[in-house]
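Fresh eyes needed here. Kindly weigh in on this sequence plus structure tokens:
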Amino acid sequence: MKASALGLFFLASGSAAAAQEGSLPRHLRDRGTGVPTSMFGTYVRQGELLVYPFFEYYIDNDLEYKPSELGYGLDVDFRGRYRASEGLIFLAWGLGRNFAVEIEAAVITARLEKSPSDTSAMPASVEESGLGDVEGQLRWRFMEERGRRPEGFAYFETVFPLQKQRRLIGTSDWEWKLGFGLTRGWGFGTMTFRLGIEYDRAERKFDAGEYAIEYLRQVSNRFRGFAVIEGNQLDEVALIIGGQWRLAPRLTFKFNNGFGLTPNATDIAPEIGLMFSF
């Protein structure tokens, strides 16, 4: 009985969503009417709650590290072998037509194997597990797309310092990020450009934040794909390719894989999860 009620809820609410999508103008065909979230190709509408549990795995055979940053004295750069698995939960809520709030939290297990040339007191491998990054964002669409004018949005992010004693996982001090982006729908798909700045209180300095060029395409009423070039500084750039397959009106299977294009980017980072809409 409970399962049947849940199924009816998904079908009824999905029919309304499908009708809304069918009446969208051409430039909103790929993304709909929602506010962009920090998840690639994901938008949240007014009054909507997105719940996304997902899993990521990281493979990096040349992670840059300093033994001193891990508590082992030597202030020299080395490159080690890094592996990590992470379970995350992402929540986004559409506060209004042009405002949204989101939060993301993770638990992670990470392992770093030291470089053969590392002569510090660091053991052959360092492993940590526990709470990973916990962050929240405010999202504001300050300009809607009309005619040749693109959509404009801004976001403010806070990363909370909840791992003061760990060196390999989590965040030990406050981090703040501010970013801006432009989105435009075309006949061949939707393009988004974004750029940010960040402040790390531990280092007491501002720095260039993430930047990205994103492409999104609604291939059918059940599937849309995306490709992203994302970077942080000039030496940490990755290509991310993925898709979203709508299994039910309010249930979407999401997957992507990141490929490092520069030495300081993670070599391979697959992600998989299910997104629920309420």
